[in-house]
Design brief:
With about 70 residues, the chain is an all-alpha fold. The protein has one domain (about 1-65). Helix content is about 85%, strand content about 0%. The protein has helices at about 1-45, 45-65. α1 (about 1-45) crosses α2 (about 45-65). Keywords: Membrane, Transmembrane, Transmembrane helix.
């Protein structure tokens, strides 16, 4: 009878550990999903600003090299 109770306790502990680990993994996955979603929304909201900044930096490098966007006046 004592052996049966011990086995039952071990089975309960195993199930509790599996459930806890499952809950932790689901929690971590949901947190990652929320962060990813907010990151995507942030990128989409700032896409215009990012594109303008990239274009502006490219225009600056072009003007530094050539003197003007249409070409150098040298």
């Amino acid at each position: 009878m004592m052996f049966y109770n011990c086995v039952r306790q071990l089975i309960y502990l195993f199930f509790i550990a599996v459930l806890l680990s499952f809950n932790v993994t689901v929690f971590l996955l949901s947190v990652f999903a929320w962060c990813f979603m907010f990151f995507i929304i942030f990128i989409l909201l700032n896409l215009n600003a990012l594109v303008m900044a990239i274009l502006y930096s490219n225009i600056r490098t072009v003007t530094k090299k050539g003197g003007a966007i249409t070409g150098s006046y040298g």
